[in-house]
Specification:
Aminopeptidase; two-stranded antiparallel sheet; alpha+beta; 34% strand; globular
Amino acid sequence: MTVMGLASGAALKDDPLFRLRTYRPADFEVLYEIDQKCFPPGIAYGRDELASFIASPHAMTWVAEVRQGVVGFVIAERENERIGHIITIDVMEQWRHRGVGTELMNTAEDWASRMGAQFMYLETAEDNLPAQRFYEARGYERLEKIERYYSSGQAAWVMVKWLK
């Protein structure tokens, strides 16, 4: 059985219809729409905030594409010579559990490591258990809970992974 042109169970990264590439300004509206669909109000970024993260001189944005278009993205930044930060990773719901998030995270972590970062961290909503399981499977550990982190008042976990 195939789903949107991909064989079920196939490794997405090996499929010729899948590719990761760096962000282009023409991607912005699609990335904004994906972020709005992936996260509830109060957690999803506003236009200006998302644009600011993407434009930061210390950040990189990668986009996941298939024939049908953009299906996800990740924004990562290098805070200093030792610290990398995943600002956001967004994968459209119908493309989750198919390797898109894994490829995006691999790319961001590899970039941070090449830039000299020793560890990577991210924040995730306290109730986003699927995301926490995904990050834990990648070697991230819960470091600290921050109450009222999001504008919605929701708490977040800071999760950390050593890269070297």
